[in-house]
Amino acid sequence: MFGCAWLAIRQAREALQQGRLEEAHRLLTQPAIREHRAAGALVVQLVRAYVEHGERCLKQQEVENAWRDLLHAEQLQTAEKSVDPLRQTLTCLGIAQVRALLQAGDVRRADEAIAHLRERRVCSAELQVLEEATRDWLYARALADRGELAAARETVERIHRRLLDWPAALDRFADDLDRQCEIFPGLLVRLHEAADQGRWREVVELAEQVLAIAPQHAEARKARSRAWKAIEPVTVSLPGPDSHHSPLQAGRGPLSLSPLAEEGGGRGELPPRFLLWIDGVGGYLVCMGARVTFGQALHDGHVDIPLVADVSRLHASLTRDAEGYILEAVRPIQVNGREVTRALLQTSDRITLGASCQLQFRLPAPISTSARLDLVSGHRLPLSVDAILLMADTLILGEGPQAHVNVPDLKQPLVLFRHKDTLGIRHGGKLCINGRTSGERLLLSDPHATVHGENISFAIEPVGVRLG
């Protein structure tokens, strides 16, 4: 055992001399090695080497690598004083980054940066003040989104009192709130009057104006939904041999689709877009292409995701490749409040098209590169759906947040998958498609299909012309 310890110490010394710090770290942290006097001296040398490497990383602006070196050095628990200046420098840089993000109005990323610093055991009175201000700013935004503008303005005043040097973006936010407070009550009064008198087209217009200010305003969203149901024409329901058992319930309203003008080719071919209606859960637009386009919903429009919103005919595109999902602007767009022309999206990013149309991008399932887009600003597609699903190879329907669609009580996930030019379904239980019982795995031979299984019923149909 004694000989093994000395061999490990020798290997650690060689690794340290050759700059292989992580290998030396692994050898010197073995329980049988740390108690040797020679190992103790090497540990101090290793800490100094980490600090020197971290300082070089800082000069090259590799801040994350410098943090990694610092944390490795601190993990060795020595009294080496050279560690403290490196921590102080990195702490100052981290706080400066938070201030810069707040100055730019990127509050969400500032909150993430603060959480990152807290994970690295940064304790600072200045960081505490910035953290409280950031949380209040996020809270004020949430209040404003719900239409509680006066409460949001009071919260901004609290931030002003807390920060001696508040960001210019906060002043802009406060000015916006002041302007909105002047017009918002009048809009609500007019919306209620129009709804009470059944002037439904006026209700839609007024609700859009309210939701442009407060995207999560509950009354405006309900009024707009009620108005759309009142003015949308009655259209053909889902066809198919099992249509009298369709999982679409009468309460969902008409589908606004034409089965005579559908995307895709012949029978059994995979359409570029299709609609997925899940009984008791909701409706979804599924886009199969690696590239999708966003634009205004027009009768002669040709975008993949048509939006009933104040956006351009062709506003932006989103492309899936080996790098991830890349958003490219044709007209002004923002990601998390920052104007961009091209951006690699991360899960939970918020996309703003035009002045107010907002979608949240998510990658719910770690095992799938398929993504989900949720309209979070109160806007909609011509056809009322709950979300847009960007299908790569698979879509997962199941319980919990790691499914693309959360289906309560579905214990065994159901997976939609690509198979050549068709769509396949995989599930742990028996399935019935268009009235015929099938096994746990099946391929759809018809672009129209109704599927029933244990605790799930859904329908699939190609997109019709009324969606654009």
Provide structural commentary:
- With 468 residues, this protein is α+β, with helices and mostly antiparallel strands.
- The protein has helices at 2-17, 21-28, 31-34, 37-59, 63-75, 83-103, 107-119, 125-145, 149-162, 168-196, 200-213, 218-231, and strands at 273-278, 282-287, 291-296, 305-307, 316-321, 324-335, 338-344, 350-353, 357-362, 371-375, 387-390, 394-398, 405-406, 414-419, 422-426, 431-433, 436-438, 441-443, 449-453, 456-462.
- The strands form 2 sheets. It has a 15-stranded mixed beta sheet that branches. It has a 5-stranded mixed beta sheet with strand order 13-12-14-15-18, with no helix packed on it.
- Strand 5 and strand 6 (324-335) form a beta hairpin.
- Helix 8 (125-145) packs antiparallel against helix 9 (149-162).
- The model is unreliable at 232-268 (pLDDT under 50).
